[in-house]
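Training component of the fellowship. As part of building independent skills, the fellow (R.M.) carried out the full modelling exercise for a liganded target. The chosen ligand was nicotinamide-adenine-dinucleotide. The inputs are recorded below so that the supervisory panel can assess the work.
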Amino acid sequence: MVGRMTATSSLDGTVLVTGGAGYIGSHTVRSLREAGRDVVVLDSLELGRREAVIDAPLVVGDIADRDLVVATCNEHGVTQLVHFAAYKAVGESMEQPAKYWRNNVAGSVELYEAAMAAGVQDVVFSSSCSVNGTPEITPVTETAPIHPESVYAESKAMVERILYWYGQTSGLNSVALRYFNAAGASFDARIGEDWAYSQNLVPLAMKAVLLKDRELSVFGNDYDTPDGTCIRDYIHVADLADAHVKSLDYLGRGGASTAVNVGTGIGSSVLDVLNATAAAAGEPVPYSIAPRRDGDPVTTYADPRFAEETIGWTAQYGLTEIIDSAFAWHKSQVDLGR
Ligand SMILES: NC(=O)c1ccc[n+]([C@@H]2O[C@H](COP(=O)([O-])OP(=O)(O)OC[C@H]3O[C@@H](n4cnc5c(N)ncnc54)[C@H](O)[C@@H]3O)[C@@H](O)[C@H]2O)c1
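Fellow's submitted model of the complex:
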């Protein structure tokens, strides 16, 4: 391993947040600023919203624009990077793989090269539990086999390996956070997930109950689970944001590069989510049972122990807070006519 590039702590500098106008990125920008960190956001705004950044400095541009990244890092004194910017639609990745190789993989290489040229020492990367594919054993640990089942998941696994090799060749320090199912919104309902861009269960359940113009499809109710529906580990976006703040602290204190699962360790079924949504809304979620989907893991949830041991993080919130905050956010957007 090559040593640190400078003697000063990377914690004294600014954090560059790519994709900071998106869902998880915007919550992380807020958490970083609340923790007293200086932040600059780089986002193309292709899938993000300017208003989600609130009043943090925003540079509109592409992660693959090397000159822009170097200039942004130099201008703002960037020492650490949180890299969210990517495409994330699994189905689209199978139809348009080149779009994912270019943006998620090649774009990350360009970004890391430029960031390192500008003196960035630490990277926190948005990876995904999907790098493990259908898990053989639950809860899922960080040593579970890497077995991506889509172009999207492979793009995340590849960038994890690229970061490993930058650690070997250039001394870049990194934490790859493997998120489980991100959900929920800020507790003041100021920022949340844009349901126009999301195929995730929680925003779809909110759409079904708030717009009342559609039935939600539940894909399979005959699985070998207590209520027959698939089980996932839903993690509040505020908890996810906190995991990034703690990962940057860990790296700034000299922590070794690693990959960390970010989940609660608790599995909730599709029907658990719909029941919690009905409780928040005060009325049932309209749904119908559809056939199972190919490639849907039956059950997956994280073993969160390594996250606590390394970055000192554990989830603070559960399904009720996730659903209540998501409902409040989506209802506020509907009330505003968005
Ligand atoms: N949402 C989840 O459940 C989940 C789970 C696992 C991993 N992830 C990963 O977390 C990250 C953030 O996810 P999200 O849900 O906040 O997504 P998002 O789509 O809301 O945010 C991504 C942001 O990146 C920006 N962006 C995309 N390509 C860019 C580029 N080339 N240059 C500059 N900006 C660009 C978009 O405009 C958007 O604002 C992604 O890397 C995603 O793959 C998300």
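The panel noted the following from the submitted structure. The CA atoms of residues 1 and 168 lie 5 Å apart. The pocket of nicotinamide-adenine-dinucleotide is lined by residues 18-19, 21-25, 42-48, 62-63, 84-86, 88, 103, 107, 126, 128, 179, 181-182 (CB under 6 Å).
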